[in-house]
Amino acid sequence: MIVVYDEFVTRHLAGVEHPESPDRVAGVAAHLVDERLFGERMGARDATDDELTLVHPAAYLARVARDVESLGPSAGYLSTGDTVIDGTSLAVARRAAGGAVVAMEAAVAGDTAAFALIRPPGHHAEPARGMGFCIFSNAAVAAHVFVRQTGGRALIVDFDYHHGNGTQAAASGGVSFVSTHGYPAYPMTGGPDEQSIAERWAVVNVPLPPHRYGTEPFVATWQRALPEIARRVRPDLIVVSAGYDFATGDPVGDLGADGPQSAYALSSLIREVAAEHCRGRVAYCLEGGYDVDTLARSVAATLRAHDAPAASAERADPAAIGASQRALLERVEQWQT
Asked: For position 337, what pLDDT does the model report?
């Protein structure tokens, strides 16, 4: 599996005590080297204004630039919300979004899967509002660049513990979004009534209990939801907001699901669905995951799932799906396109 990584992304918040630390990507990269999974590596590049403004208005880009410039050598907050920034943050966020685009282009060019090992994460960044550790909506930018370049359809799959409110806000015009997430939990969005379907795109939210959902129901929920949504959306590319803070023990999330085991099962499912609908094209973008050891092992499990001999994903027990999640998925399955 292709891995897109640039050590430049470790500069954001270096030396600042914060859960979204440089150790997250550096630790994953070191683990992938140790496990001999860092085989096909590509560098990132900066996202251009033309690419970023497919999601974020130019006025927001200017605001981020002013906020960063005003800090000098200190750390502070982005003026739109609860995102800590320092003097490197704009440059690093551009590199992160560009890394997502590089992973997308590599996946499309090779009909394969690619993983963008990037930070800061992006799925909370709304078009004109950075929040929740996020500055630019990396996965949404990559998806919209794909749609502009090809005229095709992209499906963003978000299995992060937290709802990707920013990605949802950018879903339109050929970019669809499906998410599971703890609810109610930060950012208090993605409730059971936040669903829509249109001719070229859809939004599907499957809120889960904020703690203690478990590995079997978590995997089973995705195994029921994703094939049905992909059948309706008919994507030409899958972009994954790959947040591993669903894992047991994560200090910011924790759905009571085993990190590596769930990551392998979900990635095997994504591989299977991508093979059916979009010639195997998948671009992963790192989102959450704040226990570095669990994060590293979970990312490694994702890579192993895509590098393994082709096989159908092992099935979880569908009876394990929670009653409210089952009822919501039944509603989705009855949608008329």
From this structure: 58
